Amino acid sequence: MLELSRADLHGSLGDPVMGSMTFLTEIMRRYPDAISFAPGAPHVGFLDDLDLPRCIDSYLDYLQHERGMDAQGARRLLYEYGPGKGLINDLVARALRADLGIDVPPESVVITVGAQEAMLIVLRALYRSASDLLAVISPCFVGITGVARLLGIGIVPIQENSGGIDFGQLENACAVARARGERIRALYVAADFSNPSGTSLDLPARHRLLDMAAEQDLLLLEDNAYAFTAPADGALPSLKALDRDRRVIHLGTFAKLCLPGARVGFAVADQRVRVHHEPERLLADELAMVKTMVTVNTSPVCQAIVAGMLLQQNGSINALAAPRSEFYRDNLARLLAALARLEDVPSRIKWNRPTGGFFVRMYLPRPADLALLEISASEHGVVWTPMAPFHLDGGGANELRLSCSYLDPEEITAGVRRLGAFLRQVC
Ligand SMILES: Cc1ncc(COP(=O)(O)O)c(C=O)c1O
Fold this sequence. Notes:
globular, binds pyridoxal-5'-phosphate
């Protein structure tokens, strides 16, 4: 019988990043009673009572009453193949303008199969040759580094520091690339509550990053997945909202905000693209062209569900986000308070204190590896995520990530008690 060799398959498949999450899923399956701080998924309490047919009806009503379609035409829009750029771009653009201060026309929005697909099509469109590199802030979300590996794009890690980005290192990396005849084409950055660190950029850092992008001729790929968890009075403008030069490609998702199973995200790409002898195009047009060769179009039914959820909140992302954001902030506060109450754990164990997002980053005085995770799960009934796979420079061996999003509040308190017992034993 034919047997294939991994060595004959694409090199990315052997990359540790690609398989890093499989072990976690496996350990959660083997220890079903463990309390897991691993999943960065939304809390199921927000999903149990969703009435999906009602969401679809809300969108069908909108098509008829605001877009002037007849009932059959509206239904067909959902049942058939759809435009590669998307169906609900008008609603997304309207919400981005009203809620996030991102003022772009619907034509510059591409609706994607989650933010994950947006990352794939953006990188595919932007990266021309092997000398185009992607800078990321390390530790970094494995979704973007995984896509870069799939596409054979060289990654340049820039260290995260207490201000979010080591700007000196970024500037230096651009100069080094130029000296070698390469260029850093784009920097992937989550300005609000990054995954895995929970780190954010303050307002001066956002301005400085935009200035540096202009100086170094970089594009910024802004991942906005967790920005909705910011307190209403503490939310900072996104990079895209501050962008005056069209340097920023904004990546959004409805997965964390409302419904991961719908797999709906989007890219905002209002950059102009010159094509000889042709009318001017937008980068969004190019992305849509790539997308049609990946998934043809994002499921119109799934787009309708998300649009219906938005319409039920008067089209407002902020209104949709409000109760969820409050729940996640309460969970995060509970996690941080429970950690602060831990007694008799060695003082060399440290953690950060984000003000939003799903994640806390913890530092141990010993490697937080898969062997230690096995002890944690089997002997103490608590699971977490080792951070090493998020680091691109071999660092992070002693770090772990705690996520607060998926657990009930009481589980968080109980889980930290178990974590305390585990840390007392092993550190
Ligand atoms: C930072 C970040 N961006 C994007 C995503 C993926 O979003 P989607 O489910 O829309 O593909 C995740 C999911 O974990 C994430 O943590």
